[in-house]
Amino acid sequence: MEHIELFFKSIFIDNMVFATFLGMCSYLAVSKKVSTAVGLGAAVIFVLAVTVPVNWLLDQYILQPGALGTWLGPEYADYDLSFLSFIMFIATIATMVQLVEIVVEKFSPSLYNSLGIFLPLIAVNCAILGGSLFMQSREIPTIGLAFNYGVASGIGWFLAILAIAAIREKIRYSNVPAPLRGLGITFIITGLMAIGFMSFGGMLTGGDDAGKKEETTTAQVETVETPTVTEVTEVAVEVEDTKELANNTNVNE
Amino acid sequence: MGLLSKKDAKLITDPLADNNPITIQVLGICSALAITAQLKASIVMALSVMAVLGIGNVVISLMRNIIPSKIRIIVQLVVVAALVIIVDQVLKAFSYELSKTLSVFVGLIITNCIIMGRFEAFALGNGPWKSFLDGVGNAAGYGLILIIVGFFRELLGSGTLLGFKVLGDSVKKTGLYAIGYENNGFMLLSPMALIVVGIIIWVQRSRNKALIED
C-alpha cells in the first residue's frame, strides 16, 4: 500500500520539476521538440531507476552514522561518513550514466544519436542527484521503496517535460510579445503548470493513519514556505490561512 | 593592487546584465527558484555559489594543462563536490537553521549548470586570475537574480525583508496593514518564483532588444 502511495505522491505531489524545480536546465533546453523530450525523459527514468537504489545501498551500509558497524564490526560503529555523501552519490551517478550510455549505444543507436550530448549531460542533471539526496533526507526505509521512488520521480519529470514540449510546439503559432518569446513564456507557462499541479496536494491526506505515518516517516526536508511563515509572523487569521495553504501542499513531505 | 584592466572588469560586469547566467545563458535555474522564498536564503546561496565557482575556477584553471580530456568531467565533478562539502559543513557549523532551510539545495550546487558551464567555457582555456574574475562575475550575476526574486517574494509574501517587518505588523495591524493590505501568501509558494523570473526576463529583453529570440 505504501508503494502505491509513494508512487503517486512522487509523480504528482512532489513532482521533480513543479514542486522542487530539479532538472530545469535540460528541461528548458530540450523541450523544443516532443521527440527529443520523450527520449530524454525515458533516459532520465532509466538513470533514476538505477542510481537511487544503488545510492540507497551506499547510504545504508556505508554513509549513515553507525552504518559501518553493522557489517564491519562494532568497533566501527562510531564512524559517521555522511559528509562524504555528495562525492559518493555523484561518483555512482557518473558511473551509471556512463554504463547507460554504453548500453544505449549498443542496443539502440538511433536513440543514442537523437539524444546526442544530452545523455552524458544527465550525469549533471540536478534531477538525478536530487533524487538521491531527497531519498537520503527523507530516510526512505527499504530498497524496494527506493526503486519505487526513483522510477516515480523519473515518470514525474518525464510528464513535465513532455507537457511543456507539446505546449512549446503549439505556442510557436501564437502571438507572444517579442521580449517574452522563447525563454520568458516558457517560464511563465511552467509556473502556471506548477500551480495546476498544486491541485494534487490534497490527494493523499485521507485518514488518521495516513496522516500520522506521513509525519513520522518524512518531513525531514522542510521546504522554505513553512519556516518563513512560522518564523516571521505571529498567529493571526491571515497567517493561519497562508499556513494552511503551505501546509496543505507540504503535509505529505 | 591597482584597478582591474578594462577587459578584466568586463569579466565581472558582463554576467551582471548582458550575459547573465540565469536569464541569458539559461544555467543554474534549479536552485534559483527553489530557495528564494526568503531573502536571507537567497543571499547565502549566492555567496556559497560565489565561493565554489571562484575557487573551483582557479583550481581547474591551474590544472588545465594536466587534465586528460577523457576524464575531465569526472575531475570537474570531484573538485566541485569537494568544495561543496566544505561549504556545506561551514554552513552547518555557523548557521544551522539556514542550512536546514537550504537542505538539499546546497548539495545541488554540485550539479548547478553554471559551475560546470563556466569550467568548460572559461577555466579550461584561461589563466587563474581571469578565471577567478569570471567565476566571481558569473556568480554575481546569478546572485543578482536570486536576490531580486527573493526580495519580491519575501516582501510581497510575508511583508518582511531579512526578517524585519518593513510593511508594518500584520497582527497588530500597523503600517500598511492598517489600511487593509494583506500579504500575498501565494508568493511564498514555488510557482511564483517561475513567474517572477519570467517577468525579469521580459523586462530585461524589453530594455535590450538585441537579446530577443525569434
How would you characterize the overall build of this protein?
The complex is a heterodimer of chains A (253) and B (214). Chain A is 70% helix and 0% strand. With 253 residues, chain A is an all-alpha fold. Residues 207-253 of chain A have low confidence and may be disordered. Chain B is mainly alpha-helical and 214 residues long. Chain B has one domain. In chain B, strand 1 and strand 2 (164-165) form a beta hairpin. In chain B, helix 3 (39-63) packs parallel to helix 7 (113-121). The radius of gyration of chain B is 19 Å and the shape is globular. Chains A and B meet through helix 2, helix 5, helix 8, helix 10 and helix 12 of A and helix 2, helix 4, helix 5, helix 8 and helix 9 of B.
**What characterizes the major β-sheet of chain A?**
none
Mean pLDDT of chain A: 77
Secondary-structure element string of chain A = HHHHHHHHHHHHH
Write down the Rg of chain A. 20 Å
Shape of chain A: globular
Mean pLDDT of chain B: 83
Which strands sit side by side, in order, in the main sheet of chain B?
1-2
Largest interface, C-beta closer than 8 angstroms, per-chain residues: A-B, 67 and 67 residues
Number of strands of chain A: 0
Strand portion of chain A: under 5%
Helix and strand sequence of chain B: HHHHHHHHEEH
Quaternary organisation? heterodimer
Note the beta-strand portion of chain B: under 5%
Question: How far from one another are the termini of chain A?
Answer: 17 Å
Tally of separate domains of chain B: 1
Class per helix and strand makeup of chain A = mainly alpha
Question: Nearest-angstrom radius of gyration of chain B?
Answer: 19 Å
Q: What is the makeup of the main sheet of chain B?
A: 2 strands, antiparallel
Number of helices of chain A: 13
Query: How many H/I helices of chain B?
Result: 9
Overall SS class of chain B: mainly alpha
